Amino acid sequence: MKYCIYNVRIISGKKEQPYEQGTVLFDESGIIDVTETSITDKGDINIDGSGLSILPGLIDAHVHLGMDCSPDPFKKIATDREADTAFIAYDQGQKFLKAGITTVRNLGTKNNVDIAYRDAVKNGTVLGPRVYAAGQPIAMTGGHGYPMAIEADGVDEIRKASRKQIKIGADLLKLMATGGVLTKGNDPGAPQLSIDELKAACKEASHASKTTAAHAIGLEGVKNAIKAGVTTIEHGYYLDDEAVEMMVKNGTYLVPTLLAPTLILKHSEVIPKHMIKKIEIIEQEHRQSFRRALKKGVKVAVGTDAGTPFNYPGLIVDEMELMVTEGMSPLEVIHAATYVGAECLRIEKKVGTIEKGKWADLILVEGNPLEDVSTLKKIRQVFKEGKPCL
């Protein structure tokens, strides 16, 4: 079925001003044509886009399919069966799509359920976003996220765990470089995997043409991960000038997940006390580090950390609003949630911008998100690979 959306504001995902009354022609094979003028009656279905904006499908570069958003997700994960996790992931996938998120990068799920879910979506068994799946994260024994992770110690064990994940079909490797907020007994600022362990994982990923993502909160762990060659730093609560300069030099991406600590503090009355104590210490540093990275030109993608406490699937616009509050323009944050997200997944030749020949992952929203990014919540239609999802 060929769609023609005309007289529509086209926000391409690039850092450029929109076409105010353009036309996008597409079908299941991809985007057929993009013009800056309004051309009607070119499709089997023609949609007047007056008052609407069309954008690339959004990319949430940090989610946890199967994590239930409860006040203490790891407590529940410890007893979940594979089927429990799969049912949660299926439900979450529907919510991501409804929010205009056509691609997610999943950074940790128990029993590698995200890999099976990815394949089910790809095969058409279930409707959901396109998934790039890490499967189980790799952590030191007792390290952050151990209830859902592969626990490995030393270079040889890390190498074997990395190869195991690659063998079963992981798209990337998730590495726990530091402690974390959700894991009881962990100091978020403490380094966990050593630089040699991180290098071993990055080397295995590189051999298989895979990327890597490092959970990294404390400064020493952040620097270890950058030196080891990870693709993305997740969270990055503590970033000094040296760390930021290293990221710029190495081309390391930052996925800040500003929303996650905000939601924990907002629901502090029901969150375990050990989490609140950690967040109260590090939350303000988080915002400052993000501003420092932004100022120095670090490449920033958008990720919500969906699955963490009260961090429900589809809150990407809330994350984008926080990023605007901390210094990004609406155009920059849309670029981060589309093209930069695609680039850090190495799929920018297929998605992330509205260009002829790319997959037709598109969202149609009411209003002008370049004036108010919150209008991205006013979804009129979502297309994934040219098919309507709403």
From TrEMBL:
Superkingdom: Bacteria
Domain Amidohydrolase-related, residue spans: 54-388
GO MF entry, a single one: hydrolase activity, acting on carbon-nitrogen (but not peptide) bonds
Pfam families reported in the protein's UniProt record: Amidohydro_1
Record keywords, A-Z: Hydrolase
InterPro entries reported in the protein's UniProt record: Amidohydro-rel (IPR006680), Metal-dep_hydrolase_composite (IPR011059), Metal_Hydrolase (IPR032466), Metallo-dep_Hydrolase (IPR051781), OTAase-like (IPR057744)
PANTHER family reported in the protein's UniProt record: ALPHA-D-RIBOSE 1-METHYLPHOSPHONATE 5-TRIPHOSPHATE DIPHOSPHATASE (PTHR43135)
Annotated protein name in UniProt: Imidazolonepropionase-like amidohydrolase
Organism annotation: Thermaerobacillus caldiproteolyticus
